[in-house]
């Protein structure tokens, strides 16, 4: 009788632990703790707020609108399985580095939004599909943030209608992304010439 009770207890404990693990994986947008030395206050906080308040320039043509579920992610182990010491830490599926900038990197299902697709996400700003994710299937996107705190405080999980600005062709380069960011930072819009390239 004691043997069957302890076996039952082990089985129940295992089920509870698996349930807790499954729930934490599904319910929370995956994110990492801030790195030592990361700035969450001052100029960085102001910059993040400015990025969130970006509005789409009226001269930019929208190819289509799509309703999606948008969550947030970081480069950390909870989101990517990689820690800061890993050689691929902060590197997206496309090979570019993650960034939260005038045009940020985002993850999407490449069957819906191919790599290189440029979107405008209300409340977040411009994003370019640079990454994929095992949980990002169909009309779901994952928006890059530097810290876990930013994911929860600034975004969480939302249903939004995104504007497709440029349909990607399945590839993205660091040089083009840098050029796009520089143009948006200085001109406050996406130049037509970069949308054609």
TrEMBL record:
Task: Name the coiled-coil region(s).
Answer: none
Q: What name is this protein filed under?
A: Uncharacterized protein
Q: Which GO terms describe its biological process?
A: peptidoglycan turnover
Q: Which organism is it from?
A: Paenibacillus baekrokdamisoli
Q: Which Pfam families match?
A: 3D
Which InterPro entries does this one have?
3D_dom (IPR010611), Resuscitation_pf_RpfB (IPR051933), RlpA-like_sf (IPR036908)
One term under GO cellular component: outer membrane
As one GO molecular function, the record gives:
hydrolase activity, hydrolyzing O-glycosyl compounds
């Amino acid at each position: 009788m004691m043997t069957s009770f302890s076996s039952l207890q082990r089985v129940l404990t295992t089920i509870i632990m698996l349930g807790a693990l499954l729930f934490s994986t599904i319910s929370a947008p995956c994110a990492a703790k801030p790195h030592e030395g990361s700035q969450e206050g001052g100029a960085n906080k102001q910059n993040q707020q400015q990025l969130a308040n970006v509005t789409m320039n009226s001269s930019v043509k929208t190819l289509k609108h799509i309703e999606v579920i948008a969550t947030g992610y970081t480069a950390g182990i909870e989101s990517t399985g990689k820690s800061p010491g890993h050689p691929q830490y902060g590197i997206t599926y496309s090979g570019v580095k993650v960034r939260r900038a005038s045009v940020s990197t985002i993850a999407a299902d490449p069957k819906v939004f191919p790599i290189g697709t440029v979107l405008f996400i209300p409340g977040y700003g411009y994003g370019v599909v640079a990454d994929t994710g095992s949980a990002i299937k169909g009309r779901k996107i994952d928006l890059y943030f530097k810290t876990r705190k930013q994911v929860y405080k600034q975004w969480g999980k939302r249903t939004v209608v995104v504007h497709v600005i440029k349909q990607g062709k399945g590839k993205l380069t660091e040089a083009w992304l840098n050029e796009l960011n520089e143009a948006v930072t200085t001109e406050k819009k996406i130049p037509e010439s970069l949308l054609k390239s």
